[in-house]
Design brief:
alpha/beta, Ribosomal Protein S5, domain 2, 2 domains, 4-stranded mixed β-sheet, 9 helices, about 15% strand, elongated
Length: about 300
C-alpha cells in the first residue's frame, strides 16, 4: 500500500524510514538509561542524608523479581504493524479498492501495460456525447495506440448487431454522437498495440451500458477479424496485476509459455484466462458473460 514500483528504490526509502524510527526509539531508551544512572547516586546521597537527620522517608515497594535495570538495559523490540507504518510513513498511498471505484460506471475497463519501469495497470475510459461521429483520443498517445483505438471502434461498429448493441446491422452506432477515449495519467506517454482488447471492452461496455468486472484486467493485441495476438512483457504485467489486487487476468493464449517466468506464489493467487478471440475476452470481462445472438459468428 506504500510502493508499487517495478524496482526497489521507494521500497528501500520506506524501509530506511522505518529503520530510522527504530534508531530513534533505541536512542531515546539509551538516554533514559544514562539519566537513570546519573540520578541513582544523587538519590542514594539524599537518602543517607535524610536518614542521618532522623527524617521520615517515603518508600516504594518493588515486587520481588522485578529488575529495574532491565527496563533500560534490554530495550523492547520495535513491532512494525499497520499502525506503526501509518505513524512513520503516513497514510497509505495506494488503495486496493481503487479499481472497484474507477470501474463503477460503464465505459471503463482495466488494462495491463509495460513501461521502462515494469508492468503497470492502465485504465481505459470511454464516453459518448452529441456530435458527428468523430473519435477523440487523449492521454498522450502514440500512433500505434491511436490505430488500435480506431481498429477497436471499427470492429465494434461492424459487430454491433451480433453484440446486441443495435437491433439491426444497418444502424450506425455513431449516429449524431462522438466517442471520446481517454487513458488516465496524461503526463505519461503511451504507445503499443497491447491495449486493443481493453479498448474493445470499454466500447462494448459503453454501448451496452454494462459495467466491466473490477477484479479483471487484460492485455492483448487484436486484429480486424477479432483474433487476439500475443504481446510482450507478460511477466511484468502479471506482477502489476498482483500488486494492484487484481484477481483475474485475461491473456492471449499464445502467451501461455511466458507464464513460466512468473513466480508460482504469484500465479497461485490469480485466475489466468487464456483467449484466442475477442468475444472470449468479452465473455470473461462482464459479470454473467457477454450475450451474443444465436446466429452470431464473430
Amino acid at each position: 500500500r506504500y510502493t508499487r514500483e517495478a524496482g526497489v528504490r521507494n521500497l528501500e526509502r520506506n524501509l530506511a524510514a522505518l529503520a530510522r524510527a527504530a534508531a530513534v526509539k533505541v536512542a531515546e531508551q539509551d538516554s533514559a538509561l544514562r539519566l537513570g544512572k546519573e540520578i541513582q547516586p544523587i538519590t542514594t546521597t539524599l537518602l543517607d542524608s535524610r536518614l542521618a537527620d532522623g527524617g521520615e522517608v517515603e518508600m516504594e515497594v518493588i515486587p520481588m523479581g522485578q529488575d529495574i535495570s532491565n527496563t533500560y538495559e534490554n530495550p523492547s523490540p520495535m513491532i512494525v504493524d499497520e499502525a506503526m507504518l501509518e505513524k512513520v510513513l503516513g497514510p497509505p498511498r495506494f488503495d486496493d479498492s481503487e479499481a472497484a471505484d474507477r470501474v463503477a460506471s460503464p465505459g471503463v475497463s482495466v488494462g495491463l501495460v509495460w513501461t521502462s519501469f515494469g508492468g503497470e495497470v492502465q485504465f481505459v475510459e470511454a464516453t459518448a456525447m452529441v456530435g458527428k461521429g468523430d473519435l477523440h483520443l487523449t492521454g498522450q498517445l502514440g500512433d500505434v495506440i491511436k490505430e488500435s483505438a480506431q481498429l477497436a471502434l471499427t470492429w465494434v461498429r461492424a459487430r454491433a448487431a451480433d453484440l446486441n448493441l443495435s437491433p439491426t446491422s444497418d444502424i450506425n452506432l455513431l449516429e449524431s454522437r462522438d466517442i471520446h477515449i481517454h487513458f488516465p495519467a496524461g503526463a505519461v506517454p503511451k504507445d503499443g498495440p497491447s491495449a486493443g482488447v481493453t479498448l474493445v471492452t470499454s466500447l462494448v461496455s459503453l454501448f451496452s451500458h454494462r459495467k466491466v468486472r473490477a477484479d479483471t484486467a487484460m492485455t492483448g493485441e487484436m486484429t480486424l477479424r477479432g483474433l487476439v495476438l500475443p504481446v510482450g512483457g507478460v511477466k511484468d504485467k502479471v506482477l502489476a496485476a498482483h500488486r494492484y489486487g487484481i484477481k483475474r487476468v485475461i491473456l492471449p493464449e499464445r502467451n501461455m509459455k511466458d507464464l513460466a517466468e512468473v513466480p508460482a506464489p504469484i500465479l497461485s493467487g490469480l485466475e489466468i484466462l487464456l483467449v484466442k478471440r475477442i468475444e472470449e475476452v468479452l465473455d470473461h470481462a462482464f459479470e454473467g458473460g457477454c450475450p451474443l445472438r444465436p446466429h452470431s459468428k464473430l
